[in-house]
Amino acid sequence: MTDTTWTDTTCADMTCTDVIWIAIGHIDDIPRRGARCVTTPKGRIAVFRTADDAVFALEDRCPHKGGPLSVGIVHGHFVTCPLHNWNIGLDSGLAQGADEGQARAMPVRNEGGALFLALDAPPQPAVAAE
Ligand code: FES
């Protein structure tokens, strides 16, 4: 791979925004049902790989009391926070059940296993691995 960033222009609700994708590594760098962290200008981002090879990115901060979601237990498309067991949806960052709160979710693009993260784009569904 020679180019590690590119810019897309997306338009939603008649508002166009530039999206900058940054290369963050390969899907094989992340164990299934695990996570790795990326440090960005926007903070520490946890990148999760599920058992079915979907990849999601959330800020590494639980919406409850800031626990590190990157060391939580990944099950299905959820992560359980290691501090007080809140379940967080990996696609949205939303706390599940009676709990309320949301970790910021970021889009991840999977290009043949090479992963790219968009920091300034609105949340989108994750892309499953090929
Ligand atoms: S900090 Fe995550 S559940 Fe409390």
Q: What fold name goes in the CATH topology slot? A: Rieske Iron-sulfur Protein
CATH architecture: 3-layer Sandwich
Biggest β-sheet description: 5 strands, antiparallel
Structural class: mainly beta
Unreliable residue stretches = none
Query: What's the name of the CATH homologous superfamily?
Result: Rieske [2Fe-2S] iron-sulphur domain
* Content of β-strand: over 45%
Give the N-to-C terminal Cα separation.
18 Å
Summed over residues and divided by their number, the pLDDT gives a mean of 87
Gross geometry: globular
Protein name: Nitrite reductase (NADH) small subunit
Pfam families: Rieske
EC number: 1.7.1.15
Domain Rieske: 21-117
Short description:
It is an enzyme of class 1 (oxidoreductase). By secondary structure, the chain is mainly beta. The chain is 0% helix and 48% strand.
Describe this structure in words.
The chain has 130 residues and is mostly beta strands. The protein has a single domain (5-19, 30-125), classed as Rieske [2Fe-2S] iron-sulphur domain (Rieske Iron-sulfur Protein, 3-layer Sandwich), CATH 2.102.10. The protein contains no helices and twelve strands. It has strands at residues 5-12, 15-26, 34-40, 43-49, 54-59, 73-75, 78-80, 87-89, 105-106, 108-111, 114-118, 127-128. Strands 3, 4, 5, 9 and 12 form a five-stranded antiparallel β-sheet that branches. The protein has a four-stranded antiparallel β-sheet with strand order 1-2-11-10, with no helix packed on it. A three-stranded antiparallel β-sheet has the order 6-7-8, with no helix packed on it. It is globular. The two termini are 18 Å apart. The relative contact order is 0.21. The mean pLDDT is 87. FE2/S2 (inorganic) cluster is lined by residues 62, 64-67, 81, 83-84, 86. It holds the Pfam family Rieske.
